[in-house]
Amino acid sequence: MTRDIKLISTDFDGTLFAEFENPPIPVRLQQLLAQLQSRGAKWVVNTGRDMSGLMEALGRANASVQPDFIVLVEREIYVRDGAKFVPHASWNEKCTRLHQELFERIRPDVPRLADWITSRFKATVYQDPYSPLCLLAGNNGDADQIYEFLDQYARTVPGLTVVRNDVYARFSHEAFSKGTALAEIARLLGLRPEQVFAVGDHLNDLPMLKLEHARWLAAPANAIAQVKQAVAAQNGYIASMPHGNGVAEALEFYLDAHGRLHSTSQ
Ligand SMILES: [Mg+2]
């Protein structure tokens, strides 16, 4: 039985990528990911960004490594084929169809929900191709209260969930998350959770930071308290360093110099 980590799932913003650092993805982490890829591991960037947002940031990071898979908007899967990313068609088509059906059902309620928010908070409410209601709150305190309100509403609609990342939130179908997308990629590769590593820093990462999807869990030092608690409660690793350096630290904690799992961390 293999004792290697074969699939590495990293959140992007605040985990892999730190906007104001130079380079935004530490060279040490790029080298480590390249080494693991050369040993047959696959790397997925599992993000809330859309395609153009991720490609723009990856380009700006000028990284020497490329992910093998990307998960966009916490729900769609793309597979790298040479220089381009091609959709995992059956997953993405089902994802689009179920979201369309769900959003049709809630569309009549959206103006009322938006009014509730904008009459109480200085917040931006808008729709985009991925959600009939998207939130950009003025601060995290406001986002907490608005999230609570939207979450209460979502509990009344089967399948509906609210995905939050910092001051941003959107509606989504609960069958599609960073966690279910990671499970689908593991299934495509024929991997078990014992071969999967996942790291993230915010609320939208919680669905993938679960032992049912990844045996090797981690959070960088900058992760929010709820994420650190969830990771620690499952015997995961809380890095002492933030962002990409914390990801490298966690991978090094779990792996020896040959890219194999330490016997003590089984
Ligand atoms: Mg993040």
3D architecture notes:
The strands form two sheets. Strands 5-4-3-2-1-10-11-12 form an eight-stranded mixed beta sheet, sandwiched between helices. The chain has a four-stranded antiparallel beta sheet with strand order 6-7-9-8. The protein has eight helices and twelve strands. It has two domains: 7-74 and 177-265, HAD superfamily/HAD-like (Rossmann fold); 91-173. It is α/β, with parallel strands linked by helices and 266 residues long. A hairpin with a 2-residue loop joins strand 4 and strand 5. It starts with 6 loop residues before the first strand and ends in a 12-residue tail after the last helix. Magnesium ion binds at residues 11, 13-15, 201-202.
What characteristics describe this protein?
alpha/beta; 12 strands; binds magnesium ion; 21% strand; 266 residues; 8 helices; Rossmann fold
Structure in a nutshell:
With 266 residues, this protein is of the alpha/beta class.
List the helices and strands and how they pair.
Blueprint: E1 7-10, H1 27-38, E2 42-46, H2 51-61, E3 69-72, E4 76-81, E5 84-87, H3 89-106, H4 110-120, E6 124-128, E7 131-136, H5 140-154, E8 160-165, E9 168-173, H6 178-189, E10 196-199, E11 216-219, H7 225-233, E12 237-238, H8 243-254
Parallel strand pairs: 1-2, 1-10, 2-3, 10-11, 11-12
Antiparallel strand pairs: 3-4, 4-5, 6-7, 7-9, 8-9
Bound molecules: magnesium ion.
